[in-house]
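Final report, closing paragraph on structural work. Over the funding period we assembled a curated collection of sequence-structure pairs, and we close with a single example.
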Amino acid sequence: MAKTAVKEVSVDEKLQQLWELQQIDTKIDKIQILKGELPIEVKDLEDDIEALRTRLQNSQNEVTELEEDIKTRKNAKALAKELISRYEKQQDNVKNNREYDALSKEIELQKLEIQLCEKKINDATAKIESKQGMLDETDKQIKEREKNLKNKKKELEKIIEETELEEKELQKESDKQSKKVEDRLLKAYTRIRGAYKNGLAVVAVLRDACGGCYAKIPPQRQMEIRQRKRIITCEHCGRILVAWENSSED
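Its predicted structure, as stored:
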């Protein structure tokens, strides 16, 4: 049984395939440029808000603990006052100096307890006032970022809504066109595209220069590019060079 002959793809056809793939991918790149840094900005804002909320919750927990401590200290202070009143009444009925001195010592201890409670209450109150300022500022920051996030999301959603269908169609075209390109060239194309922010791997010769890095191309090399007998890359940036009769800066 005779083998089916594999059609030989000319260099001219290979360059045309790469050029067409580049045009499709460039359109996809333009959509990504339209989105700009919005996806990253949205993610950063979401992370920032989450961190601020965690900080706010931790501070609120600390304030709650301080308020509980103040409550405990106030109860202890009230109890100490009750004990002082009780001990003072007992002093009126003591039988000897030893009992009187013992009660006086207890009264002194309770007075010290009151002083300690007052100090702890004042310290805790000062900390709460200090933290309240931070709580207010953190809450303000959260609201500002949430407002900013809402606007960024709205902007991004609008762009996605306007470009989603087009981007999907272009991606299908890109995948379809990629299958036409031989593996070796596709790998080279992908590698070169990844090396440059503008994603240009295949560029036309414009005004006697590389359309990617704008380095001048000697006349003899330009003639070889126009002949399309072999794949030629820019000696300066490594991009694949093409020269169509209708090539333009657009």
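The chain has a mean pLDDT of 89. Strands lie at 202-206, 209-210, 232-233, 240-242. We thank the funder for supporting this effort.
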